[in-house]
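Practice problem 4.
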């Protein structure tokens, strides 16, 4: 009668298992490397000042994905709202943040577009921000 103890234990991480696993796997086909271009580091302000066409051009080349743009909008909104109430933010940055929140412009990183990306009504967010600012001013 064979029992589980009579069978030699298998070394699941041993050399034989690794060799067999490699043998059954399909090897990836190496694609020819595209012509290398020197990567350009875009600053935060560079992205903010870009036109819709320039942003779309970047997306076409997969340098910036749609998910990254959505994340950047969310990050910009959160960062700006924190700057409005944080005591260590300079008056200049606070005024720029207030101008951005009060602006009704529509461009890829405007207050309205960033709120819409988070599925929030920009008027409600603006009213809430002003209420919090009044509270912190007292």
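Answer key:
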């Amino acid at each position: 009668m064979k029992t589980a103890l009579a069978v030699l234990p298998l070394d699941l991480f041993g050399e034989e298992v690794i060799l067999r696993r490699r043998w059954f796997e399909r090897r990836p086909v190496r694609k020819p490397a595209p012509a290398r271009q020197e990567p350009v580091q875009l600053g935060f302000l560079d992205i903010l000042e870009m036109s819709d066409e320039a942003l779309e051009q970047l997306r076409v080349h997969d340098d910036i994905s749609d998910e990254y743009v959505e994340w950047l909008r969310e990050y910009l909104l959160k960062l700006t709202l924190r700057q409005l109430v944080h005591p260590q933010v300079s008056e200049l940055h606070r005024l720029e943040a207030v101008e951005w929140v009060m602006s009704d412009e529509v461009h890829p990183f405007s207050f309205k577009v960033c709120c819409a990306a988070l599925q929030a009504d920009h008027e409600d967010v603006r009213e809430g921000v002003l209420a919090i600012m009044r509270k912190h001013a007292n």
